[in-house]
Amino acid sequence: MVAIETMARIPKEARGVLKEVAARWADVADGGAPVEVKPLKGAMTNLVYEVIWRTEREVDRKVLVRVYGDGVDVFFDREEEVRTFECVSKHGQGPLLLGRFPNGRIEEFLHARTLSASDLRDPEISALIASKLREFHGLDMPGPKKVLLWDRLRNWLKSAKNMCTSDEAEEFSLDKLEDEIAKLEKELSGKEETIAFCHNDLQYGNIMMDEQSGIVTMIDYEYASFNPVAYDIANHFCEMAANYHTDTPHILDYSQYPDVEERRRFVQIYLTSSDEKPNAVEVEKLLQSVEKYKQASHLLWGLWGIISGHVNDIDFDYMEYARQRFHQYWLNAS
């Protein structure tokens, strides 16, 4: 039987939904009571748990319980995020939604391993991610195909200003960022951009892989929206500087940012479809766009860090993370 103190980590309302989920499975033993609850590390917006039941077979039943972080509704519309989750699932991407409770949900547990930071540098795994990202960008999702990036940046900047002390606002140069956002938008927005439904948070912890089949699955669509595909790729490259499973998960190592050959290989695979291969001009054009959009990624996640530092109590040094993202932005600002 699972320890009482361990099960107590799961909200009371969620425990009732877990019973309902277990009741759907005739092979669950012990009267439907879970035998183990495991906190999963690496999540920075929510608390995530693996819940396990014993069964009459050799294979246990498992689900994933996601408890929403406090105050994070400033980042996205939770109802819209759940609708996205359901729609992506219907397209055969990601886990199924098994149940909901007031401050979280219960998801299908994918029997695949979550990638590690080093996996992103593995050429074979990186190729699988590139192909999967192209597939994800091709999803026929509802809603206006309007870029969200610039409105999100301005909204998060407004929230950060409202939360920050005067010293924090000065440290992060918040009074300068509205002009920086406008400058980036003017430089990057154009009719030739490819707009698609983007993940917008493609860090290694949001990618899973079935070792036997080699199938890659992208999970966690809280920040997903229509955006330029170059931004989504740029954001993925920026995430290669992170390792959220160390003693200092907030520390970024930009020596791990992919070099030009790694970036070119990823983009080339991304642009390759079943019936044609991209020419050199297409590859270079997207590569250049990606490198410009990494500045937007630094700004966005820098603001995310500031806001999270004020609203989230997960054990993560959000403010230091924000400092590093802004430092990278100003290093590359023209």
Automatic annotation (TrEMBL):
<dbReference type="GO" id="GO:0005737">
    <property type="term" value="C:cytoplasm"/>
</dbReference>
<dbReference type="GO" id="GO:0004305">
    <property type="term" value="F:ethanolamine kinase activity"/>
</dbReference>
<comment type="similarity">
    <text>Belongs to the choline/ethanolamine kinase family.</text>
</comment>
<keyword id="KW-0175">Coiled coil</keyword>
<dbReference type="GO" id="GO:0006646">
    <property type="term" value="P:phosphatidylethanolamine biosynthetic process"/>
</dbReference>
<dbReference type="InterPro" id="IPR011009">
    <property type="entry name" value="Kinase-like_dom_sf"/>
</dbReference>
<feature type="coiled-coil region">
    <location>
        <begin position="167"/>
        <end position="194"/>
    </location>
</feature>
<protein>
    <recommendedName>
        <fullName>Choline kinase 2</fullName>
    </recommendedName>
</protein>
<dbReference type="Pfam" id="PF01633">
    <property type="entry name" value="Choline_kinase"/>
</dbReference>
<dbReference type="GO" id="GO:0004103">
    <property type="term" value="F:choline kinase activity"/>
</dbReference>
